[in-house]
């Protein structure tokens, strides 16, 4: 994205000198310092240190940790999918609406098959409906991006409106009663693994680990980076770019569907009006985590850190008694600062 | 002399009203560097794209080892041992050299992990180090993103990728166009090394002195057809320019008649004096 022209001779000399300097530090240390995740993690650590110092007795108690993790769980699942989309140089504005539509369709099934008192069979089918809705919607958007060549911003902006509209048509705009089986709520929404870790957190953690490993260590992940880095290069290398894009958008849809199940389990309602800014929150987290909107860069580990920065910030500000509207100001500033720093470092790196 | 490795006979390619190739012939032998020269619009790119499977010809035939072939696409040509180094490199800048070398041809771990398409990064890294070392390419770290490499190093990665997988022919479209003097020399050294392995290198270039310094033979295209062939030794830049522009209407200049099997068939119909440019 920056100059590709060959460096003139003096720059080459410079490069030699800095390389010699760098060689003094061990490789793993240099790699660590060069990794986006280390910097973002530093910001997160600073925030935690600051709030801990400011309110030693109240911040990061066990209750806080559980609360932060539970609140972040659903956004984390969406953000993992968004990481893939942003790495292929795409964007998905529709995640919140797809979540709502998935929730509504699965709720409709539950309402007609036992409502709040529904058994596990209904739970299983309604969960499958939620996942399938997300998957199909995502794949459709992916097809429009890859084959119909409509820019992803437009496709998912359309999807954002259409999915929410469809959900409102189905429900008449009201959150329906009896949308979730009480069994699902008790087991997953409020249940804890070994009585310690909320199931929501376990599910989010599992999804994050699985798709983090896929991105980092498999051919699917490698091709995701390659396509985001240079679609033409990927195509020439024999990668089926269109099919891969459809899969990536289908994945983010699937994870939105999973998010809807988690949401229903925890909150017990479809919250039709409550997801209009999910997309922005999730994109913020992914970008804070070091992903480049130009594609080719990012990681699930970075995204995890990026999800927790706003979560820690808001919890910390609440504990310090700061008016909650300041959160949004703070997150906005942190976001722009993070991207600015990233650009700054990147320019340095590409020069030599 | 062995029969040609790759031969194009009377290839024709049209784009709407534009005829890019008109009965174009081309011959390449194993273990040689053959330069393909011509003025802008002479049909060099179309010819290379046709021979590397990117374009399907409208007429004529392509023979590989004397057998007619029809490439379904670049991947098909690649399966026949034909690789292309594109002018704009076609590397993924955010991936490192090792990843780029194996892009689309990843090596997987063994056993269950392999079935899950888990990459064997160490193996790919080792193979990349070997591939670069074989070509005498000095790359300090194959784990650095390609974006951080110099123009020459990037070009080397692109060439090494083609070399690592080609076992017959490599097409190189202006491989030195964006490079400085030193880097240019390195790439040309690489070209010679590749040839010495018995692979045929087809070099497309505008730089005539460079063509004459590295190529064994030169084939000249003008207005979509081959108009002349030279052996590089003893040929001057003026000869090449003359053939490219049509000022010199010599066919197979610098080649003794019947020197190579393709000559006898090629000479007559290539002669622009007989049927002239369109």
What does this structure look like?
- Chain B: Residues 6-248 form the ABC transporter domain.
- Chain B: It comes from Actinacidiphila epipremni.
- Chain B: Keywords: ATP-binding, Nucleotide-binding.
- Chain B: This is Sugar ABC transporter ATP-binding protein.
- The complex is a heterodimer of chains A (352) and B (278).
- The longest helix of chain A is centred in the middle third of the chain and has 27 residues, at 120-146.
- Chain A contains 15 helices and 2 strands.
- Chain A is mainly alpha-helical.
- Chain A is globular, with a radius of gyration of 22 Å.
- Chain A has one domain (38-343): Orthogonal Bundle (ABC transporter involved in vitamin B12 uptake, BtuC).
- Chain A has a two-stranded antiparallel ribbon.
- Chain B has 2 domains: 1-81 and 168-278, 3-Layer(aba) Sandwich (Rossmann fold), CATH 3.40.50; 91-165, no CATH class.
- In chain B, 36% of the residues lie in helices and 23% in strands.
- A 6-stranded mixed beta sheet of chain B has the order 6-7-8-3-9-10, with helices on both faces. A 4-stranded antiparallel beta sheet of chain B has the order 2-1-4-5, with helices on both faces.
- The radius of gyration of chain B is 19 Å and the shape is globular.
- Chain B starts with 5 loop residues before the first strand and ends with a helix.
- Mean pLDDT of chain B is 81; it is low at 252-278.
- The A-B interface holds A 4-7, 9, 12, 15, 19, 217-220, 222, 225-226, 228-230, 232-234, 236-239, 295-297, 349-350, 352 and B 74-75, 78, 86, 88-95, 99-100, 103-106, 108, 116-119, 140, 147-148, 150-152, 178-180, 183.
């Amino acid at each position: 994205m920056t100059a590709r022209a060959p460096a003139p001779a003096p720059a080459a000399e410079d490069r030699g000198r800095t390389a010699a300097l760098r060689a003094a530090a061990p490789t793993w240390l240099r790699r660590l310092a060069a990794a986006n995740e280390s910097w973002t993690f530093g910001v997160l650590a600073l925030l935690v240190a600051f709030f801990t110092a400011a309110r030693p007795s109240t911040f990061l108690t066990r209750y806080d940790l559980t609360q932060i993790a539970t609140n972040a769980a659903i956004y984390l699942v969406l953000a993992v999918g968004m990481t893939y989309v942003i790495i292929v140089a795409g964007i998905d504005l529709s995640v919140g609406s797809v979540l709502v539509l998935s929730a509504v369709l699965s709720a409709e099934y539950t309402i007609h098959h036992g409502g709040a008192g529904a058994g596990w069979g209904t739970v299983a089918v309604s969960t499958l409906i939620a996942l399938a809705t997300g998957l199909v919607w995502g794949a459709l958007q992916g097809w429009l991006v890859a084959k119909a060549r409509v820019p992803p911003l437009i496709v998912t902006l359309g999807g954002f409106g259409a999915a929410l509209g469809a959900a409102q048509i189905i429900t008449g705009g009201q959150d329906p009663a009896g949308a979730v089986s009480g069994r699902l709520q008790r087991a997953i929404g409020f249940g804890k693994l070994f009585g310690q870790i909320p199931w929501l957190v376990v599910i989010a953690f599992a999804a994050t680990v699985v798709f983090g490993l896929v991105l980092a260590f498999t051919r699917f992940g490698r091709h995701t980076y390659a396509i985001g880095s240079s679609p033409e290069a990927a195509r020439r290398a024999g990668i089926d770019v269109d099919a891969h894009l459809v899969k990536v958008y289908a994945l983010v849809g699937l994870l939105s569907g999973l998010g809807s199940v988690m949401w229903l389990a925890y909150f017990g309602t479809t919250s039709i009006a409550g997801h209009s800014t999910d997309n922005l929150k999730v994109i913020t987290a992914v970008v804070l985590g070091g992903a480049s909107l130009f594609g080719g860069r990012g990681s699930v580990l970075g995204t995890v850190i990026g999800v927790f920065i706003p979560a820690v910030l808001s919890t910390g500000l609440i504990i310090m008694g700061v008016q909650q509207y300041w959160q949004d100001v703070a997150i906005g500033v942190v976001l722009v600062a993070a991207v600015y720093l990233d650009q700054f470092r990147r320019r340095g790196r590409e020069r030599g | 002399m062995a029969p040609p490795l790759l031969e194009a006979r009377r290839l024709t390619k049209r784009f709407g009203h534009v005829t890019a190739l008109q009965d174009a012939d081309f011959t390449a032998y194993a273990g040689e560097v053959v330069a393909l020269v011509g003025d802008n619009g002479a049909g060099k790119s179309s010819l290379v794209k046709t021979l590397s499977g990117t374009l399907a010809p409208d007429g004529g035939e392509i023979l590989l080892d004397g057998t007619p072939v029809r490439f379904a696409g670049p991947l098909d040509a690649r399966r026949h041992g034909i690789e292309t180094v594109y002018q704009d490199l076609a590397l993924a800048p955010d991936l490192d050299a090792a990843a780029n070398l194996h892009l689309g041809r990843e090596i997987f771990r063994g056993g269950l992990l392999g079935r899950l398409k888990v990459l064997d990064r160490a193996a790919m890294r080792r193979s990349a180090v070997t591939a670069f070392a074989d070509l005498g390419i000095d790359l300090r770290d194959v784990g650095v993103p390609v974006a951080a490499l110099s123009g020459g190093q990037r070009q080397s990665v692109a060439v090494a990728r083609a070399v690592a997988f080609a076992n017959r022919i490599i097409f190189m479209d202006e491989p030195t166009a964006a490079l400085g003097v030193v880097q240019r020399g390195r790439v040309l050294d690489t070209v010679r090394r590749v040839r010495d392995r018995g692979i045929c290198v087809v070099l497309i270039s505008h730089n005539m002195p460079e063509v004459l310094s590295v190529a064994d033979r030169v084939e000249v295209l003008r207005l979509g057809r081959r108009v002349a062939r030279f052996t590089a030794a003893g040929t001057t830049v003026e000869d090449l320019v003359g053939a490219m522009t049509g000022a010199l209407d010599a066919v197979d200049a610098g080649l003794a008649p019947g020197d190579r099997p393709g000559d006898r068939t090629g000479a007559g119909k290539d002669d622009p004096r007989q049927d002239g440019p369109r």
